[in-house]
Design goal:
The complex is a heterodimer of chains A (about 230) and B (about 160). Chain A is an all-alpha fold. Chain A has eleven helices and no strands. The chains are: A mainly alpha (about 230), B mainly alpha (about 160).
């Protein structure tokens, strides 16, 4: 049955006034209003934070549909867990934690891709690797087309790693978060974050070395074991 | 430095955070060690790849909020509906249990009394013999010419003779 209020012009005016008042409201006030059943308050939360949630989810998924799915799941979870947001931390941090967990769960549920070898590379990817071998890491003068190739290749390499490896590499090495930030975001211990990052870098490096057609150098730990 | 491989220096921290002094050590060692040179090149390339990956970002579509709100309403409606169903099912279960208990009570307390009374009336109507007769000849209580009946006839005849 259609809501008769929707046909009433005053209803739209009331909603507009309500959303205008929400624009000035703090995150905690919005959370309280949304908890009390005010949908426009939750819409304001989404308006404020959906770009960040999308940006964060884009680190883990390259298809728009997957990013949207993750972001939608984040806000649905956030709505049901509004009670847990007490305003002690920032809403941005709270939503980042939910986004991280959601993305991690989606990565875990996805099938892990098999190891990537030189023979699996496209011509463009091989060309990109060769041209970037000599370039300094700090230099960056890529065309958008070449950036796309690089992003495709990175995505393929990352998806051969475990979801936890992908997460730390993205958070620390790509997003340049500190270990302490990652501890807050993931809820892992500091030592777990450090060890996970160390191992993830090694696995990523080994995967890239294989693509370059070189035998990966054994890690220091492996060398000690061999001795 | 020649014998000290630089792998741990590369893997301890993100490539962009390696200090200038460490980077000099790494470069100096990599120039003399093939395997470390390969590891260094791969680590540098991995850093470039990760940075390229962050360049790509999606923005929310204009209908994103509308879609999420629609999903929320759907979920809430589904939750309410499922609670309604649970309550209705619980009500049906409770009323059927009450009905069963009532039926069992009727069967236990009311129907056996009626049947017992009926049986007794029926039995007494069927049985025309006195208690003495049944005691004298319990096995043939239903026979017409029982020993009891003969004895009664004999007693009656003897009394008539005395009179």
């Amino acid at each position: 049955m259609a809501d008769t209020r929707l046909r009433h012009p005053q209803y739209f005016d009331a909603r507009r006034l309500l959303s205008q008042s929400h624009e000035q409201a703090s995150d905690l006030e919005l959370a309280r209003s949304a908890r009390a059943g005010d949908e426009s308050a939750f819409e304001e939360i989404m308006r404020r934070y959906s770009p960040r949630v999308f940006r964060f989810a884009s680190r883990f998924f390259r298809q728009r549909s997957l990013v949207e799915e993750a972001a939608q799941e984040v806000f649905l979870k956030a709505f049901t867990e509004l009670d847990s947001f007490a305003g002690r931390g920032s809403m941005e941090g709270w939503l980042t934690r939910i986004t991280t967990n959601t993305c991690l769960n989606l990565l875990r549920s996805a099938k892990r891709r098999p190891e990537l070898t030189v023979s699996n590379l496209t011509e463009d990817e091989t060309a990109w690797l060769e041209s970037n071998m000599g370039a300094a890491a700090t230099e960056r003068h890529e065309s958008s087309e070449r950036s796309l190739v690089a992003a495709d290749l990175t995505d393929r390499v990352l998806h051969t790693l475990s979801p936890d490896d992908q997460l730390v590499l993205m958070l620390i090495d790509a997003e340049e978060n500190s270990v302490k930030d990652v501890v807050k975001i993931t809820g892992w211990s500091e030592s777990k974050v450090k060890v996970q990052a160390f191992r993830a870098r090694r696995r990523m490096r080994e995967a890239v070395e294989k693509l370059l057609g070189r035998k990966p150098k054994a890690s220091a730990t492996a060398q000690r074991v061999m001795k | 430095m020649k014998d000290q491989h630089i792998i741990s220096l590369i893997e301890n921290t993100s490539f962009g955070s390696i200090s200038e002094s460490d980077l000099q050590k790494i470069k100096a060692h990599a120039a003399e060690c093939d395997s470390c040179e390969s590891a260094y090149a791969a680590a540098r390339l991995a850093a470039v790849m990760l940075r390229e990956r962050t360049a790509e970002t999606f923005e929310p579509s204009p209908f994103f909020q509308t879609r999420v709100m629609a999903h929320l309403r759907e979920r809430q409606a589904a939750n309410t509906w499922s609670w309604d169903r649970i309550w209705r099912a619980a009500g049906a279960l409770a009323s059927s249990m009450v009905a069963t208990v009532a039926a069992l009570a009727v069967l236990t307390f009311v129907i056996p009394d009626v049947s017992n009374t009926g049986e007794l009336v029926e039995a007494s109507a069927r049985n025309a013999y006195s208690v003495e007769e049944v005691i004298i000849n319990p096995g043939d209580s239903l026979e017409e010419d029982s020993d009891g009946l003969i004895l009664k006839t004999l007693y009656d005849a003897a009394e008539d003779t005395v009179k």
